[in-house]
Amino acid sequence: MTRGRIWRIPAIVVCAAALGLGSAPDAGAEYGDVVINKRAEKEGMRPVVFSHWFHRIRFRCKVCHFELGFKMRAGANDVLMADIIEGRFCGMCHNGQIAWSAENCDLCHSGLPGLKSGIYGGHDTLGPGRW
Amino acid sequence: MGRASFSVGSRVWLFALSGMLCLLWVSQVFPQERKWLPLAADGVHDPRSPALKQLQEPREALSRLAPDPHVGNQVRWVKALELGQINPRTNIFPETKVSVLDQDIIMSNTGSRPKVRFPHKQHSLWLDCAICHEQLFKSKAGGNNISMLSILEGQQCGLCHGAVAFPLTECDRCHSVPHGVPIPDAIIGK
């Protein structure tokens, strides 16, 4: 190995470390963001983006995952717009009284077309992020 | 030739190592400012969606909350709750019974890792008992066969930790009790 090449390896290591330490954990969706696109795009709407961070500031997990009956597994909740309009699931709050009503389609259907359903965001393991 | 290049090589590696240590020190002494991507650039929202003018930006909401600079939403959610920075609603239906259990469970069958302290209080502030009991976990100390393998696969604790609660890279937050230290007022599981 020539002297020039020996220099390169540690230089790469230092650069990689600098990049690793210098970058904020912000590449992509916010932790716990859920994309829901089982039907939306097929029916001509953008996918839904559900942000856990936005909701947990206002409601404890127990409200949706206990009172409203949302299962804690992305894809496990088969929620139709009809349910929401009739006051079930999201519709328990998204009724124009607690939160914006279902007529504000775009506020929930704000996702990037083409995204698959699932949990997005940083630190997902093989588990929750894969379902 | 071999000896000469080895000595140059080790000096170079020493230099690289000290460089990395310096970087580590700098990152500890000057913690990074938390940054959140705008919704329009987060890769899940459509930048052309009219909603982006109305939806709350993560930076606006999260920068006010107890910091956790390196993981998740960069927020210590339990601390934010304890400090009163947020006061999320506990129930929608007035008849819902809201309960909080102040009790720790110590799990000691953790091999070479420190024991796990599971605090019911911090969990039940957010969650209802029925979310975990009796399907995910039996209400019996020692009655649950919890393993890191299934947690890493998104089962048991991994249902939330790794998706919405602090991730599984934060070993010490659960494995927090050294072996051999007596814990008063805790229920000891296996």
Structure description:
Residues 17-26 and 125-131 of chain A have low confidence and may be disordered. Chain A has helices at residues 3-22, 52-58, 61-67, 81-85, 105-108, and strands spanning 33-36, 48-51, 118-119. Chain A is globular and about 70 Å long. The longest helix of chain A has 20 residues, at 3-22. Chain A contains five helices and three strands, in the order H-E-E-H-H-H-H-E. Chain A has a single domain, classed as Cytochrome C3 (Alpha-Beta Complex), CATH 3.90.10. Chain A has a three-stranded antiparallel sheet. With 131 residues, chain A is mainly α. Chain B is an alpha+beta fold and 190 residues long. Helix content of chain B is 31%, strand content 8%. Chain B contains seven helices and four strands, in the order αααββααααββ. In chain B, strands 3-2-1-4 form a four-stranded mixed sheet. In chain B, strand 1 and strand 2 form a beta hairpin. The termini of chain B are far apart. The model of chain B has no long low-confidence stretch (mean pLDDT 89). Chains A and B meet through helix 1, helix 2, helix 3 and helix 5 of A and helix 1 and helix 2 of B.
Label this structure with key terms.
heterodimer; A: 131 residues; mainly alpha; Cytochrome C3; three-stranded antiparallel beta sheet; 33% helix; 8% strand; disordered C terminus; B: 190 residues; alpha+beta; 31% helix
Topology at a glance:
The complex is a heterodimer of chains A (131) and B (190).
Chain A lengths: L2 H20 L10 E4 L11 E4 H7 L2 H7 L13 H5 L19 H4 L9 E2 L12
Antiparallel strand pairs in A: 1-2, 1-3
Chain B lengths: L1 H28 L28 H5 L14 H6 L21 E4 L7 E5 H7 L2 H4 L15 H5 L18 H4 E3 L8 E4 L1
Parallel strand pairs in B: 1-4
Antiparallel strand pairs in B: 1-2, 2-3
Strand order of the largest sheet of chain A: 2-1-3
Termini separation of chain B: 59 Å
How many helices of chain A in DSSP terms? 5
Return the CATH class of chain A.
Alpha Beta
Poorly predicted residue ranges of chain B = none
How would you sum up the major sheet of chain B? 4 strands, mixed
Order of helices and strands of chain A: HEEHHHHE
Q: Care to count the β-strands of chain A?
A: 3
By helix and strand content of chain A, what is the structural category? mainly alpha
| N-to-C order of helices and strands of chain B | HHHEEHHHHEE
Per the principal axes of the C-alpha atoms, what is the gross shape of chain A? globular
Q: Which whole number gives the mean pLDDT of chain B? A: 89
How many distinct folded domains of chain A? 1
Pairing-aware structural class of the strands and helices of chain B?
A: alpha+beta
Uncertain segments of chain A: 17-26, 125-131
- What's the CATH H-level homologous superfamily of chain A? Cytochrome C3
How helix-rich are the residues of chain B, as a percent range?
A: 25-40%
Describe the oligomeric state of these chains in a short phrase.
heterodimer
Helix content of chain A: 25-40%
